[in-house]
Amino acid sequence: MTITKDIIKRLNKILGDKSVLVSRTDLMSFSYDATSNWQGMPEIVLFPTDIKQISEVLALANENSIPVTVRGAGTNLSGGSIPVSGGIVLCTSRMNRIIEIDAVNFTATVEAGVVLNDFNMELAKQNLFFPPDPQSYLAATMGGCVAENSGGPYGLKYGVFKHYLLGMKAVLATGEIVSLGAKTIKNVTGYDLPLLICGSEGTLAVVAQATIKLLPMPEARQTVLAVFNDVITANAAVSKILSRGVRPAKAELIDNWIIRRIEEAAPLGLPVDAEAILLFELDGAVETVSMEAAKVVELCFNAGATDVREAKDKKEADNFWTARRMGFSAIYGNAPTALAEDVTVPMDKLPELMERIKRIGEKNDVMIVTMGHAGDGNLHPCILTDKKNPEHYARAQKSTQEIFDAALELNGVISGEHGIGLEKRRYLKNAMPPEAIELLKKIKTVFDPRGILNPGKIWE
CATH number for the 335-425 domain, one of 3.30.70.2740, 3.40.718.10, 1.10.510.10, 3.40.50.300? Predict the structure, then answer.
């Protein structure tokens, strides 16, 4: 126990009684995230409402060497927001103001607790667009998106969160408030500290505000659904489309098992007999979208699709994309434990990775289902298991290791968007040279000398 009655009294003074949770029932809700096989109980949960409160909490925690785990909505899939060292959970969900939307300069400044979907709804009123779209966008907070460098289906055409981050206000472990970056699109003034913090999984600083760039809303969008008899053929089709100069906004893969589970839960019109489907979204000017959608239809047929069709209207398109967003829910709802992985390889290696994943599942006698962002080489093979069955769980973990090995052998990486957190820390030494890991640790020490911020994550 690192938090004494005196410290609780001081925290109550900083935040007020209604922003401090200490009962075990309340704390339980903050002991897990969207992963299904990790848990860690905090000693106290705090809800700051401004950056000054964050500063005072961190100064107190640093003075007393109390672990602090920052949390937004807890939708991350790496165990990153689980307080495995106890201590404080610092939940930024009440810092939810959109400070500014500057339509003239295509920028916005938001607090960490702003929900991504709420932000996009406000942007739509001004015909603006913020592309990063993790599947948890209905709940995910902007601070969490910064911490995880969130991606999503739009990554193919538009990139990930770091491509839109201009600046931030953050609080260091000592309680010092720092303003980093700027509001300008171009900025080469010293080291790019905002990008260093982006994707650091809450281990370097607490992000209180973020300034990001925006885009105009695309004039038109068109969804195309392609049906394949083979998952590997479906993956290969995407490379062929990209090589012909067509750049969809999204190109998503769903395999047969997931298709069936989605349709069982909420019939949305997916072809349940398809071994795999690809979902494309084309966006841009009306004429361009129409031309590119027709080209995708043609190229999918040429690549071996058995059926390809454009969504007939917005409702059908929305149904298709709702189905894609239901993917992880379908997986977690049909297995006691799901190891939802996140590997990325160069585009031309995607069919080979898919083939190797298939063989790994057969060899280890485990069910591996797959969906992912086929357009940027980022697959989510999900291993269905049960942590209460030690023998089966051991085979599932062996499969995880072999999937990571396969990705690395194909010049890929062990995480494209979920991060390392708890899930992959034991594999980091295989993915990075020891000199690079040592450099990470030195950077961590500069930002957080006492190691209070999100301890136990990224490396063992």
Answer: 3.30.70.2740
